[in-house]
Design goal:
about 130 residues, 5 helices, globular
Length: about 130
């Protein structure tokens, strides 16, 4: 864990059950408090209920509402609060990175080139800079 031994809370938004379970397990092993959800709509509902998180980790390619629409909705509805948003996606074009950043994402991790352990490490680096 980081130097302060802080236990970070994460809202993990991922529509692939296998990946949702895998990342949930990996973050839990590192003592993160994780709330996994299958859709951006479910994530918005949790935030509207008043739940708060240190980090919102979201996929981009999802049914009904994609990650870009989700980030825009978080901004429009002022649901980001003190949360740090990080995109975890297989989309790796520069335009995708730029779009995510313009919507408030503090980091962008490409799934295909990162092991789950590397994802956790990168998330910690981003959170420690927050």
């Amino acid at each position: 864990m980081d130097k302060n031994n802080k236990k970070y809370s994460i809202l993990l938004v991922e529509d692939d059950k296998f990946l949702l379970d895998m990342y949930s397990t990996k973050f839990s092993e590192q003592k993160f408090d994780i709330t996994p959800v299958f859709s951006a709509i479910e994530a918005i509902s949790k935030l509207e209920e008043g739940m708060t998180f240190d980090l919102i980790l979201t996929d981009i390619v999802m049914p009904k509402m994609d990650g870009f629409e989700f980030l825009k909705a978080l901004n429009d509805k002022k649901l980001m609060g003190h949360s740090c948003a990080i995109v975890l996606s297989n989309l790796g074009q520069q335009e995708d990175l730029d779009k995510a950043k313009s919507l408030g994402a503090k980091g962008y991790i490409i799934k295909a080139t990162s092991t789950p352990s590397e994802v956790v490490k990168r998330v910690l680096e981003i959170l420690d800079q927050k």
